[in-house]
Amino acid sequence: MTTKSTTKPTRPTIAQRRQADLAEGVIRLSPSSLTFLHDECPACFWHHYNGRPRPATAFPKVFGALDNAQKEFFTGHSVKDISRSLPAGTIQRGRRVKSENISLPGTSYRVQFGGDTDTIFKFSRAGYGVCDFKTSAPGDQAAALYGRQLHAYAIALERPAGDAMPLAPVSRMGLICFPPDDMIELPTATSARSTKSTATSRTVAKQYAYRTSAVWVEVERNDEAFLHFVANAVKLITRRTMPRSAPNCGWCRWTRMTAPLLEQHQLNDSAA
Q: I need a labelling partner for 203 at 20 to 30 A (CA). Which of 65, 144, 232, 272 fits?
């Protein structure tokens, strides 16, 4: 009598997946990694794709709740509710996207972008827009930084992998910023509750809201400049040796401090 093995196949490590990508000549990039991680520390960016990514930090729940509320509220609204300068259309909830393999200038490697868009505009006449919600004041630096992410999403929407339907052309990109202005008290509601002898009223607890406005920050599309930036990022990722860390990178400083302790712990375990 024979029994079937129930052992699950071992999942490849990040380093093993990276070696497979290099052999295939395709680098799979997360659009979000092209923003803060890339700019904060070259070593951390290199490690993210070569086997020792930074531990994920918890995203504050309040910002997650605000982000989800913004998406839910505006889904189905007119694009004109965001800015009168935008073409007429409808705001749609974002979707998960994955691009086909994209060629890069100055390197034989290709890239594939994969991630989740915040929001998509479907314009009435033709074309689409892609944007991110931000609970912050608008600024040129934010537009330049998050513009990399939006370029990756735009390319993935126009040139999706497999049999996915392309959404093209993506003619507008930008940020929808909601800077909090002040706080207001909402009208208090009361509900009547009858009993056999008397009618009483129950007052609902007071409610408050932040008052804000939607500020549209346009991001100019420049695929040529973006793909040159990505090509340089790929050259950094595919280096055989780790680049220098940023002088003020706390994560690199912590790993250098703890590395001798971890090595000693491993030696003790092997000797036991």
A: 65
